[in-house]
Design goal:
Length: 337
């Protein structure tokens, strides 16, 4: 009996010192385990006189239950204390300031497109837009490119169906505007265009700015002066500009415009293919056939038109050698502008 009292006291002492669940686990095996104190006592019953066994057994079992209950209660307490502690430690201070978010930048194409638009606005041009999914009529036919015309081969077209295409240039906007208004006209048409083409200098979608000026007495001299002013503004005022005879079905005469290579300053390099010049836009005097298509009198009115690719201008301005970089969305590239 005294032994049991002593054991109970000793257990309570140990229990009081146990601070976490692993220490409790140790206590459990020390008292209730296979080689534990209580188990030992129960085994020792066999060496007692049979008459004493029931009473002693009862006492030992009571102590066993007591120890078990105490261990369980303590375990629960320790568990909730441990959970409490974890909650405290892992709590989030919602009043702390956030990590801050990065402010995005504008895409280089948007930057240059806006710059080009601003230059033409400063020269008195308006801005017009048209659909990207365009009727074959506006994209080709009204621009003097009939169905079987070989000039259709100049532009690899995405056809939606026989009558509808993804526009291959922004020139159809000039037809749409001329159909709706009478001269004088002076506007540009910026926007996305589509051609079935993809390599280091072509993407299936790219941006163009088309320009049109129509009035009585518009001459090639007006075309030259507007385009020279523009190119000196978007590049540098001392950039050499040259007009080279060319062909477009919707202009006559037509000219391609080159600038002196801005990389080698004209001495010849890889970018200008050693010619010292870089082709930058197409232009010409509006073909009288186009005027007839939209109901203008070609004897009364003359005009000029031009068209340029914004990707190309952006590549030249920033020295970018692969057009695909614009559309890969690599932030290391985009973050530089
Ligand atoms: N539309 C032509 C092209 O995309 C460019 C151009 C526009 C040429 C206007 C002359 C006049 O290639």
């Amino acid at each position: 009996m005294d032994d049991l009292k002593e054991l109970r006291k000793q257990f309570l002492l140990h229990l009081g010192r146990a601070e976490d669940s692993s220490q409790l686990q140790n206590l459990r095996s020390r008292y209730l385990g296979k080689k534990g104190e209580i188990t030992g006592l129960l085994k020792s019953l066999t060496s007692m006189p049979p008459a004493d066994r029931p009473a002693a057994g009862k006492e030992i079992n009571e102590l066993k239950d007591f120890i078990e209950n105490q261990l369980n209660r303590h375990l629960q307490k320790i568990h909730s204390r441990e959970i409490e502690g974890r909650i405290q430690k892992e709590s989030i201070d919602v009043t702390l300031p956030g990590p801050g978010s990065e402010i995005g930048g504008r895409h280089p194409i948007s930057l240059v497109l806006d710059e080009v638009i601003d230059i033409f606005i400063s020269m008195g041009f308006g801005v017009e837009e048209g659909p990207e999914i365009e009727l074959d009529f506006y994209n080709f036919e009204a621009l003097n490119i009939p169905r079987d015309h070989p000039a259709r081969d100049m532009q690899d077209t995405f056809y939606i169906n026989d009558e509808v295409v993804m526009r291959t240039h922004t020139s159809p906007v000039q037809v749409r505007v001329m159909q709706q208004r009478k001269p004088p006209l002076r506007f540009i048409a910026p926007g996305k265009v589509y051609r079935c083409d993809a390599d280091i200098s072509h993407t299936p979608m790219f941006h163009q700015v088309e320009g049109l000026m129509v009035d009585t007495n518009i001459t090639f001299a007006n075309l030259k002066s507007v385009l020279e002013s523009f190119l000196h503004s978007v590049f540098t005022p001392d950039t050499p500009v040259r007009f080279r005879p060319s062909y477009f079905p919707f202009t006559e005469p037509s000219a391609e415009v080159d600038i002196g290579c801005i990389f080698c300053k004209g001495s010849g390099c890889r970018i200008c293919k050693t010619t010292g010049w870089i082709e930058i836009l197409g232009s010409g005097m509006v073909n009288p056939k186009v005027f007839k298509m939209v109901g203008y009198n070609p004897r009364k009115y003359t005009g000029f038109a031009f068209g340029m690719g914004i990707e190309r201008i952006t590549m030249l301005k920033y020295g970018i050698d692969d057009i695909r970089l614009f559309y890969e969305n690599d932030l290391r590239f985009l973050g530089q502008f």
